[in-house]
């Protein structure tokens, strides 16, 4: 089923609806760009812009299905990977193979950093941790890591605080996902994110709104630019409790 058809799939976190949502975005005229591409080249005034970002907080095994849907539609997205997760090992055989597949599909890989958590948990100095993580990812993936993203609301430590006082450029990176220098998109976009107690949230001008619209509704209304954060571990083929189905 394509979103351009009369009966697109109902809103859900099913892969089918992800595909329909992206197809609708393409049909409405959006141009999809990676974070790195937007950070490097900035806005193009006449473009209906969408940037698809994915934080692999958990369950990297759920990333390939979404990455493949994007690739099949000619869309390149940005996947941020943790290297200090207790829940998965980015350098283990299975996950590393997944990450290399994402690169082969044309997607960007960034670092999902948690410097304040790591400093508190293990005493590692943040600059050292970030530089080591970037070097390790670059080494095994044979790509340049240009960007970093942090989470602030699933841990006690607000890792974004670190990047508010340490510009990405100081770390040899092009951008941080919420900055107003390297990427400069969060505060200037409709920032749409899944998964907060099962409803969508939209930030406008950097501020949380009451808007609970699904990403497909933003695309349908041609709101722009759209900066979407979707967490692959929340999306599924048939049922949330089935890992790969
Ligand atoms: Zn929807
Ligand atoms: Zn996260």
Question: How does this model look, in words?
Answer:
With 245 residues, the chain is an alpha/beta fold. The chain has a single domain (15-181, 215-234), classed as TIM Barrel (Alpha-Beta Barrel), CATH 3.20.20. The chain is built from eight helices and ten strands. It has helices at 15-28, 35-41, 63-72, 93-104, 115-122, 126-141, 159-165, 215-220, and strands spanning 30-33, 48-56, 78-81, 108-113, 147-150, 175-176, 190-196, 199-204, 207-208, 226-230. Strands 1, 2, 3, 4, 5, 6, 7, 8, 9 and 10 form a ten-stranded mixed sheet that branches. Helix 1 (15-28) runs parallel beside helix 3 (63-72) and helix 5 crosses helix 6. The model has no long low-confidence stretch (mean pLDDT 93). Bound molecules: zinc ion (2 copies).
Question: Which features does this protein show?
Answer:
single chain, 245 residues, alpha/beta, TIM Barrel, ten-stranded mixed β-sheet, 8 helices, 10 strands, globular, binds zinc ion
